[in-house]
Amino acid sequence: MKSRVFVDSATAEVRAGRGGDGSGSFRRESHVPEGGPDGGDGGRGGDVVLRASTHADSLLRVFYEPRLFAENGVDGSGQKMHGRNGRDLVVDVPCGTEVYNAETGAWLGEVVEPGQTLVLAKGGRGGWGNVHFKSATNQAPEKFIPGGEGEAFTARFELKTIADAGLVGFPNAGKSSLLAALSAARPKIANYPFTTLHPIVGTVVYGDYATLRVADIPGIIEGASGGVGLGLTFLRHISRSRMLVYVLDMADEENPAEDAYRILRAEVESYDPQLAARPALVIANKMDEPAAQARYPEAAKALGFEPLRLSLAAEGKPGLDAVRQALRDALRPTPQGAPQAPADAPRGPVDHTEVTPERLRMATFLKP
Ligand SMILES: Nc1nc2c(ncn2[C@@H]2O[C@H](COP(=O)(O)OP(=O)(O)OP(=O)(O)O)[C@@H](O)[C@H]2O)c(=O)[nH]1
Ligand SMILES: [Mg+2]
After folding, report:
1. Residue 313: CB within 6 Å of ligand 1?
2. Which of 135-144, 196-205, 215-224 shows the lowest mean pLDDT across its residues?
3. Top mutation candidate among 177, 196, 235, 323 for ligand 1, by most atoms within 8 Å of CB
4. What is the pTM of this model?
5. Which of these, 52, 128, 217, 350, is most buried using a 10 Å CB contact count?
6. CB atoms within 10 A of CB 364
């Protein structure tokens, strides 16, 4: 079983290996009367390297072992022996890990694609042995060069989950239920708020083997971007998503869907206006509930568009195929490379008696 502990930021001491010293040795052999300098070079210090891995799903390892020290190079020795290079320390972190200098706040880079590496700290160069200093005038140099220091600093790691689409919704709206229905991911689902405590990503697989990744995060409540509830820290995990999926609980009588949508958008907007401007799919969930059906026309009117009807509790999960298709359509690259809302996306109500792909796109995409 996978660890339930989820760590999405961590601080660690990073220290590359020191270079081994050069040697100041002289050749001493019984049959060689005047042995010359034979001190070899030191090995270089190991680097500290960050590597994106699909096997790491949080920064737990860094959190528990916050000393990331690479091996020192070995000193050179007599008989022109070169010291061994220090081994690099390769730190596996989840895809989407960013690194900052903890003291200055400077952004140092990120690893995104599986296998991508980033050298965090370079090892010190190996020192030079005295063999390098032998010359016509100096046949017995005592001089040698010590190894260089490795780079060292305090690093702060932050994980930004990589997914194509991010689910946003009030607690209990059915986000995890949607992820479970779309993918093989098995997030915890329960009828109480804040069931989901950390982000989880699932992969949606299409008939033609196209895939896209969807991230489920804890529920967002009003004030999340200002630190209320769990929301703020987790909005970060969908900040790279190319699109957002707003999941509205149509059966929630206390929080009408149109209010929920306005609050969610405002929270996303105050977190990052660029994120709020990305394409969005809006889902009216729990449509199997009579209260949801009764509320739908009024909500659609207030919203100014028809959110996609979905029912995850009913037999056959009506609406799910349309959600899958809408995700796919939205994420298909355009000539510009990024998904775009159609230019003619309406702001007013749309007649939705028959769900054609074109209508779906029109009803579910909102121009920022
Ligand atoms: N009737 C009905 N219930 C649903 C539907 N979708 C989800 N639920 C129920 O709503 C409750 C909350 O579902 P979750 O998927 O855990 O909701 P969530 O948005 O992930 O909630 P948090 O993780 O707390 O933010 C569960 O009891 C689900 O079974 C639906 O379409 N119809
Ligand atoms: Mg959940």
Report:
1. yes
2. 135-144
3. 177
4. 0.69
5. 217
6. 27
Looking at the structure, do residues 155 and 200 belong to the same domain, yes or no? no
Co-location of 179 and 150 in the same domain:
no
Q: Last residue of some domain: 136, 159, 182? A: 159
CATH of the domain at 204: 3.40.50.300
Ligand 1 pocket check for 101: Cβ under 6 Å = no
Q: How far apart are CA 157 and CA 315, in angstroms?
A: 44
- Are 83 and 214 members of one domain? no
The torsion angles phi and psi of 124, rounded to 5 degrees, stand at -70, 150
Question: Who contacts 29 (Cβ-Cβ below 8 Å, separation ≥6)?
Answer: 35
The tens digit of pLDDT for each residue in 228-256 reads: 666 567 788 888 888 999 999 999 989 99
Residue 128, domain CATH: 2.70.210.12
320, 182 Cβ separation under 8 angstroms: yes
Domain that holds residue 232: 165-364
Phi, psi of 233 (to 5 degrees): -60, -25
Q: Is 197 in the pocket of ligand 1 (CB under 6 A)?
A: no
Whether residue 224 sits in one domain with residue 298: yes
Residue 1 lies in a domain: no
Q: Encode pLDDT of 167-215 as tens digits.
A: 999 999 999 999 999 998 888 888 888 888 878 888 898 888 888 889 9
